[in-house]
Design brief:
- By secondary structure, the chain is an alpha+beta fold.
- It has 3 domains: 100 residues, RNA polymerase II/Efflux pump adaptor protein, barrel-sandwich hybrid domain (OB fold (Dihydrolipoamide Acetyltransferase, E2P), Beta Barrel), CATH 2.40.50; 71 residues, Dihydrolipoamide Transferase (Irregular), CATH 4.10.320; 221 residues, 2-Layer Sandwich (Chloramphenicol Acetyltransferase).
- It contains 8 helices and 20 strands.
- Strands 10, 13, 16, 17, 18, 19 and 20 form a 7-stranded mixed β-sheet that branches. Strands 7-2-4-5-9 form a 5-stranded antiparallel β-sheet, with no helix packed on it.
- The longest helix has 16 residues.
- Bound molecules: oxidized coenzyme A.
């Protein structure tokens, strides 16, 4: 015969709201298993089964208000169940900001769930993982079943943002937290930093969510890895490109009809290769163990290309062996290919050094991220006419800002400065490219 399970004496609380149904009709429960969660303005608590059996029918819904004596459910007791079973403990959880509620002393009616015995948070079990900060875990606002769930997964509830009522932490919040932590783990940070909290930006105004493109995600992973694993230094410098620019313009006019655009970038590629020849460490890579430097005898340069779907870095091979016109033609082709999403993986492999030119857009300097396994990357910003002292007067000169980021494990600061000084000299007097 079914027995009625009622809300036991829950102390000072009256008309508390049912916020969670923890069982359904047909479920088998053991004595002390939680049946429902209720919440007052002071605390959330779970009402446990006074004995084991099968839930026949639930008599409450989420949102119902219940008090002592309210019918929760009908239970078919397990055969041979001891109806005099020891009262289970009502598991109570307070919102972090609330103060302790008074313990209840009156005995519960026999067929009701057992009387509440507020459980001091300081009694929380020792964490099974080193990641749990017991102090913040105990302050987190979550029901006992969620606490148990979090402990099983080794999640520190103190770091989980609650999305339930009054910021109560739900099971989904814990699951989200784990998913985020795992995805950050696969990105390979290994830094043990706290994960970013999930923020509901719509609370401050209208928002729109758009997925990242495949390129965004891939580039993001590489950049993140390189940013955290490569000790970066950025060396800034300038090159006087007044003469180079007038030469370039003459070439532009000459090759316009042939459909080739001679841009500053091709000169930069040539200048970079000549600097790599002068400073071979700039054309090296660390081996996977970080024990050896691999010096390359070929000169392939990656060019960062901005596309509507994100950043890609196609590689121009054998830059040392190609003429300016050949390089300009190839650069035009790979830019179009990149923007038309026609680049093959092999078009983006084998680079030795990368150039990222934002000169066509603007800016005075920036700190590019090394494109590992390269050990250096040259950032180029917009050139500007500036007054330069020639020893007797100021002369208007076209100045190109250079930003060289390098892997400090491979390149010393002095070499970084030597490299940009060399580049600057070559770009100021391109006859040096012939040397
Ligand atoms: N200073 C002043 N003007 C410059 C310049 C510079 N440093 N570099 C280019 N320009 C001018 C060009 O002369 C051209 O002018 P005209 O149209 O009058 O001839 C204009 O800017 C546009 O140049 P461009 O960008 O089309 O050509 P480019 O060869 O300089 O660059 C490419 C090609 C593919 C590198 C470029 O289009 C691009 O995608 N840049 C963005 C790269 C990027 O996103 N980097 C960031 C990566 S994060 O590290």
């Amino acid at each position: 015969m079914s027995i009625e399970i009622q809300v036991p004496d829950i102390g000072d609380f009256d008309q508390v709201e049912v916020i969670e149904l923890l069982v359904s009709a047909g479920d088998t429960v053991n004595a002390e298993d939680s049946l429902i969660s209720v919440e007052s303005d002071k605390a959330a608590m779970e009402i446990p089964a006074p004995e084991g059996g099968v839930v026949k029918e639930l008599k409450v819904n989420i949102g119902d208000k219940v008090s002592e004596g309210s019918l929760i459910l009908l239970l078919d007791p397990a055969s041979g169940a001891n109806t005099e079973s020891k009262p289970a403990e009502i598991k109570q959880e307070k919102p972090a900001e609330k103060t302790e509620s008074k313990p209840v002393a009156t005995p519960a009616p026999k067929t009701s769930a057992p009387k509440p015995e507020p459980k001091p948070q300081s009694n929380a079990k020792q964490s099974p993982t080193a990641n749990i900060n017991e102090a913040s875990f105990s302050k987190a606002y979550a029901s006992p079943s969620i606490r148990k769930f979090a402990r099983e997964l080794g999640v520190d509830l103190g770091q989980v943002e609650g999305t339930g009522r009054k910021k109560r932490i739900t099971k989904e919040d814990v699951q989200h937290f784990v998913k985020r932590a795992l995805s950050q783990g696969t990105a390979g940070t290994g830094l043990g930093v706290a994960p970013m909290p999930e923020i509901d930006f719509s609370q401050w105004g209208e928002i729109e969510t758009k997925p990242l493109t495949k390129i965004n995600k891939l580039t993001g992973q590489f950049l993140h890895r390189n940013w955290v694993t490569v000790p970066h230094v950025t060396q800034f410098d300038e090159a006087d490109i007044t003469d180079l620019e007038s030469f370039r313009k003459s070439m532009v006019a000459e090759y316009k009809d042939k459909g080739v655009k001679i841009t500053m970038l091709v000169f930069l590629m040539k200048a970079v290769v000549s600097a790599m020849k002068e400073f071979p460490r700039f054309n090296s890579s660390l081996d996977a163990e970080g024990e050896n430097l691999i010096f390359k005898k070929y000169f392939n340069v990656g060019i960062a290309v901005d596309t509507p779907d994100g950043l890609v870095v196609p590689v121009v091979t054998e830059v040392d062996r190609k003429s300016l016109v050949e390089l300009a033609t190839e650069l035009g082709e790979i830019s179009v290919k990149a923007r038309d999403k026609k680049l093959k993986p092999s078009d983006m492999q084998g680079g030795c050094f990368t150039i990222s030119s934002l000169g066509g857009i603007g800016g005075t300097k920036f700190t590019p991220i090394v494109n590992s396994p390269d050990v250096a990357i040259l950032g180029v910003s917009r050139s500007k006419m500036q007054p330069v002292w020639n020893g007797s007067e100021f002369e208007p000169r076209l100045i190109l800002p250079l930003s060289l980021s390098y892997d400090h494990r491979v390149i010393d600061g002095a070499d970084g400065a030597r490299f940009t000084s060399f580049l600057s000299r070559v770009l100021s007097d391109t006859r040096r490219l012939l040397l």
